[in-house]
Write the structure tokens for this entry.
Amino acid sequence: MDEKGKKAVSVKQLLALSESERLNARVSGMVYSVRDMKDFAFIILRLSDGVTQCVFDKTSPLPAEESAITVVGEMREDARAANGFEILIKSLTVLSAPSAETPLAVSKRKLNIALENELPLRPVTLRNEERRGVFKLREGIVRGMRRYFEDNDFTEILTPKIVASGAEGGANIFRLDYFGQKAYLAQSPQFYKQTLIPVYSRVFEIAPAFRAEKHNTARHLNEYISVDFEMGFIDSFYDLIDVETEMLRSTFAYVREHYAAYVKPNMTLPEITEIPRMSFSEIKERVAEKYDRKIRDPYDLEPEEERLIGRYALEELGCDFIFVTHYPAKKRPFYAKDDPENPKFTLSFDLLFKGLEITTGGQRIHDYDEQIAKMRLKGLNPDDFESYLMLHKYGCPPHGGLGIGLERLMLQITGEQNVRAVSMFPRDTTRITP
Amino acid sequence: MDEKGKKAVSVKQLLALSESERLNARVSGMVYSVRDMKDFAFIILRLSDGVTQCVFDKTSPLPAEESAITVVGEMREDARAANGFEILIKSLTVLSAPSAETPLAVSKRKLNIALENELPLRPVTLRNEERRGVFKLREGIVRGMRRYFEDNDFTEILTPKIVASGAEGGANIFRLDYFGQKAYLAQSPQFYKQTLIPVYSRVFEIAPAFRAEKHNTARHLNEYISVDFEMGFIDSFYDLIDVETEMLRSTFAYVREHYAAYVKPNMTLPEITEIPRMSFSEIKERVAEKYDRKIRDPYDLEPEEERLIGRYALEELGCDFIFVTHYPAKKRPFYAKDDPENPKFTLSFDLLFKGLEITTGGQRIHDYDEQIAKMRLKGLNPDDFESYLMLHKYGCPPHGGLGIGLERLMLQITGEQNVRAVSMFPRDTTRITP
């Protein structure tokens, strides 16, 4: 508090003012829109967490939209106004004015612009209430997840993104020149989170991951936020399924409690109780039968098949989510633990949300000899994984984990059609700006 | 809770058990060390947040160190034991055993190994209590910072790390091949955090940053964790200094409250009240005078000079920290706002902690024409910054921000001599593994 009184930048701060402070509230924000009513004007001020209506008697010139202003005024209760009050402006100071009009009106309730045209203009369109709200919701989801991990003995780790080898194999990896050495961008924190299991028993990380996938689809990004956790001392991979279920339930509850303003009626934030689980082979057959569809690839799920599994889960099992378990070993990485009852399959799973894979996880191999053998079987040279294999060599508990694609989760919650819509500044094969 | 009872993986969970549950506590961890006393043995179990002593009557073979085990036993109060209890083992199950002995004993109080030899062995040495404690402390600092930002209306952002141009200029930038396009790894979230100021007023991000600096010193990493914030509607850059001071004070208090076990007697976690501030020119002269040192570079601080400023701050001003303000424009990036009273200098600052720069920050240019002019003066082409300049063109408030190098902060807190010691898996010019 200085001699001029507190300067609020949020609705939250304004609502926390005392009765007497409300007589001369001081607030700074961006001019979202101006409605000139001749003798006075309405100025809608965009604050950090919402908008507020101000009434201005035009004792000084009207500020342009997207000007930064500070006003001093009286907060008056008004049930019709957003947040239950409006501000009668006593003085208005323009801190800065734009040098050009925005290429589209940002204060519309719905921005009517195609995604392809919007993305280059994101520095402007994110000023729109609905748009920025999507990323407040993302913040809420991330906070809710962290709260869950904190409360359940997971240690937060921050692992390197420049790495010497890829965890997921394949060609989908970005190469970079690292002082003359070959280096890569991490596809996932896989090796590190496993390495830290004997250290902390349970770890998590929420950080960028990079995949050089060449296909430009509505569900792929080349850089995304990966929510990873890894747990030691599991009895089976069903422990991971239980933890993910509980984590999502707790996260959605956190969001409903603290971010309700950003959960719009058209969004899906399910009340999770139980999530059904079914094996890869069984759900594949059931879907083929129910929707009269031929099985073309017995080892993988096609996107269309994933959508049908989502439909099946909703129609037959009454749930937006379904765990598909026991994926074929052929399609899982070298660290996936085979099912001892049928080594053609692995103790692994995907989580589908409304027909889209948002999680891949499973139990990992913890025995040294077993891991060496599986590497050889997959055509890999164990010598290339010396650091990683210290985990198995020097002892580690049975463990497993999973990764959640944050943008994919957001995509299904918001009901958007393209994952780019829920990434602030998406990266795809042709886009590295803004 | 299953039929076998809760399985604890942390001291915290054990301490939360009821009196009756303590009679048959079930706990899983790694065998940290074994002391065979002939008729019985002490097994020190490493849990996720500490170690606990178990007494084992040797009814089954002793497990090897670094085995993963589950024990069921009675928790008995014992004032001499760590955490105030020990466990009398009734049954012991080995979940997995290592296939080789660790190359050094991990359970020593102090690992007696040179950093250069330790780093390749980090997957093993992090199992040491003292080592892993350093990164629990880091977790505490990150959590404390986030708590502060959350409580003070900062929105958390997650910005892309693959970018089209560097924010800091210069050659210290990693290039990568991005589907045939040139792309870079972000040196900082600078452009994005500024872009989001008219959107959210205040933002922060804690994420990796990449610098291709060729010098291999004890204070440089090529990948580090950058704690960034940016604030709109500031009156001057002193607002930023006030927020950073308050943020550090509140973070250290949080750590003292919640992470006390990891704050060792040899560490420095100062009680911050005020942090002194002095201009670049003045402190340079004072240090030259007091320590009889010639000023060689009037535009920058040499590492030796930073150390002397730290000494001066402690000796003359009684503080481990000092803000050095008004850096020469020559050495600051194109977005730094010049001091209107003397445009050779900028409205910027560094924060030094025990003689090491841990923060660079300052007020940014918010006016479009001013930014264009400064870019031209610095030899840059404004056309290359079209997305970034939307910020200035379409309106933004006076604003500024700063970045904190998390590992440097940790370096000064822990009193380590090399920043690699406080990065789990450090990246330097020759090191990309483990």
Q: What stands out?
A: Residues 129-151 of chain A form the longest helix (23 residues). The two ends of chain A are 37 Å apart (CA to CA). The longest strand of chain A covers residues 25-36.
